[in-house]
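Hi, here's the filled form for the chain we discussed.

Project: internal
Contact: R.S.
Residues: 127
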Amino acid sequence: MTTVPENPKAGNVLLKLTLTDQAGKPVTNAQVVFVYTMPMPGMTDSKVVARHTKDGLYEGTVLFGMGGTWVVTVNATVPGQPPIAEKFQFAVGGEACNWGKRASERPRAMRKTACLSRPGSGGENIE
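And the returned structure, exactly as it came back:
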């Protein structure tokens, strides 16, 4: 599995996965779902259905809401085969909510973003 950008940062990240059969031929008829979360108490799973683009390549855009460790479980189902589940871990940089910055210091598109909680902070967001 690869990401775009290669070194993912908080925000939207494109996941790319190539599926091949035992003979190395592309699998083009799979149903693929990316289930992702941060491995910490209270975090819930999010999921996105990946779409087949070409030659066994499946893509889906996930939203890594903050920097830190994220785990993506790939659930793939190929007709006539047992389901496959594989886990991948990513170190995601940055903070999508720009914690610690006043609204006027954030990029314009993020000035109205409300951060509901910040690890270790009690949930305050500097305005």
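Let me know if anything looks off before we file it.
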